[in-house]
Amino acid sequence: MTIATIRRDTAVETQKPHDMKLEVVVIPVSDVERAKLFYTGLGWRLDADLTGDGFHVVQFTPPGSNCSVVFGSGVAPGPYARIELDILETAGELVVSDIEAARAELADRGLDVSEVYHNAGDKGRVSGPDPERRSYASWASFHDPAGNNWLLQEVTARAPGRVDADGATFMSSVELAAALRRASVAHGEHEQRTGGQRDENWPDWYAEYMVAEQAGTELPL
Q: Model pTM greater than 0.70?
């Protein structure tokens, strides 16, 4: 693919681009344990420390940052490797709230983007998004003309501890609208559980749900 192959159709250019947040940057290290001690000493938050079958992958987030760094070693690429380890073979990761919509937009722009896929355990990677649309469970990928690979990952609810509930924010109208739609569906189920009566305090319920979802804390029922 070259830059010239990316279409610039008027219909595509006039649409608001789907949010793609820079979530992870991959950095090279020669000694994973030494790097881990260094970033721990800086006071960075340790988000993940994965080991097994000869690999070691670590993720840190600087204080106040919305983007993390990942480094590691010992990952052998292959179709049945753990999907979350693919990150070491890329330049980084972009988070989206709707993996299918984001992929469709990239394809409309003429980009050679992979199909959406998820991990089905012993079956390896399976075409299509995660059947339950769990957060962190659906992926796609693409590369730029220089061969830099990027991962797309669908995230709708953050893992506990990844977001400070007091600092939960929505960076665009697209992201806010998607969160409102999910809250609307959940609130409809809430009203059914409470006898089908209209909830006059629905704005408070929406707000509590949306902040909890983003922060990865317990959702209201």
A: no
